Amino acid sequence: MATPTLRQLEYLTTVVDTGSFTRAAEQLHVTQPALSHQIRALEGSLGGPLLERLPRSVRLTPMGRAVLPHARAALAEAERLHTAARRTSGLEEGELEVAVVYSVSLGILPPVLRDWHRRHPGVRIRLREYAHTDRLQEAMLAGRADLAIGPAPTGWEGPIRELGVEEFTIVLPAEDPLADRPTGTVELTELADRDWVHYAPDNGLADLLDQVCARAGFRPRAAIRAEQTSAAPLLAAAGLGPALVPANIVPAHFEGALLRPAPPILRTLTAYTRTRPDPLTVAFADLLASRARVDPADPAGPGRSAGFAPNGPGPSGAAPNA
Question: What integer pLDDT is reported at residue 219 of this predicted model?
Answer without folding.
Answer: 97
